[in-house]
């Protein structure tokens, strides 16, 4: 319910199902996996831990509703289905795969990557400390932003390299920039394509596609 309890009841249901029926343990990513950002993607086949999202949830909506309303939503664009993370001595690499070929990087709010680097929901923008692809330089370079809590806005932190071809995308971020330099760490992340706005986490529920869905995050646990 927009403007009310939003998706609180849905989240409560998921929480209780997990509590009483149980869930599989979160897989742990072990060892170094060096990835070259060249748009070829072969190295990703060696990384077994993957994060999945439902397929086919970007269909457009055009249907009459209650009380004379007519619901229209054509924001569905890139259907994100699989994600991976690789860790090398210097970089953390991210991979995303969509159901069909990716649209142009020149599109607004294209394949946003949000990272909760300190694994703390009380810091950053609703927990997210870094944002990638809000500003894209060109087909090979994109901008890593950091959320400034004093100014309450995203600010440019650095430029990172990325590549995409067909339905796959990859990028590298320095471990030092994310503050993830220890021999083991945990962080959360999320992909989102074409949200109408980044006003609050409910923005992920009302437009485009998000992986994982709604307010959920993926959790990466890595050990050397």
Descriptive account of the structure:
- By secondary structure, this protein is mainly β.
- The chain has one domain (35-223): Immunoglobulin-like (Sandwich).
- The protein is 10% helix and 39% strand.
- The protein is built from 3 helices and 14 strands.
- The strands form 2 sheets. Strands 1, 2, 5, 6, 7, 8, 9, 10, 11, 12, 13 and 14 form a 12-stranded mixed beta sheet that branches.
- A hairpin with a 5-residue loop joins strand 3 and strand 4 (70-73).
- The longest helix has 14 residues, at 8-21.
- The termini are far apart.
- The mean pLDDT is 91.
Rg calculated over all Cα atoms? 18 Å
Number of strands: 14
Please report which band the strand proportion falls in: under 5%, 5-15%, 15-25%, 25-35%, 35-45% or over 45%.
Answer: 35-45%
Please name the CATH topology: Immunoglobulin-like
Order of helices and strands: HEEEEEEEEEEEHEHEE
Given the C-alpha coordinates, what overall shape results? globular
Low-confidence stretches: none
CATH architecture classification: Sandwich
| Strand-pairing-aware structural class | mainly beta
Distance N terminus to C terminus?
A: 43 Å
**Count of alpha and pi helical runs:** 3
Largest sheet: 12 strands, mixed
Mean pLDDT: 91
Helical residue percent?
A: under 10%
Number of domains: 1
CATH class: Mainly Beta
């Amino acid at each position: 319910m927009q403007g009310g309890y939003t998706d609180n009841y849905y989240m409560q249901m998921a929480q209780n199902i997990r509590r009483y029926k149980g869930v599989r343990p979160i897989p742990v990513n072990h060892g170094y996996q060096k990835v070259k950002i060249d748009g070829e993607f072969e190295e990703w086949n060696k990384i077994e831990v993957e994060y999945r999202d439902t397929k086919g949830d970007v269909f457009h909506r055009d249907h009459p509703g209650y009380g004379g309303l007519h619901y229209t939503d054509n924001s569905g664009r890139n259907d994100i289905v699989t994600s991976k993370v690789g860790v090398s001595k210097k970089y953390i690499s991210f991979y995303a795969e969509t159901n069909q070929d990716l649209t142009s990087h020149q599109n607004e709010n294209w394949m946003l990557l949000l990272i909760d680097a300190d694994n703390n929901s009380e810091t950053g923008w609703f927990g997210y400390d870094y944002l990638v692809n809000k500003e894209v330089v060109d087909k090979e370079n994109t901008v890593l932003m950091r959320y400034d809590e004093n100014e309450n806005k995203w600010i440019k932190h650095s430029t990172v390299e990325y590549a995409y071809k067909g339905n796959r995308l990859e990028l590298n971020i320095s471990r030092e920039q994310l503050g993830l330099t220890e021999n083991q760490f945990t962080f959360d992340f999320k992909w989102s394509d074409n949200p109408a706005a980044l006003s609050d986490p409910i923005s992920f529920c009302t437009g485009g596609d998000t992986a994982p869905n709604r307010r959920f995050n993926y959790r990466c646990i890595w050990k050397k």
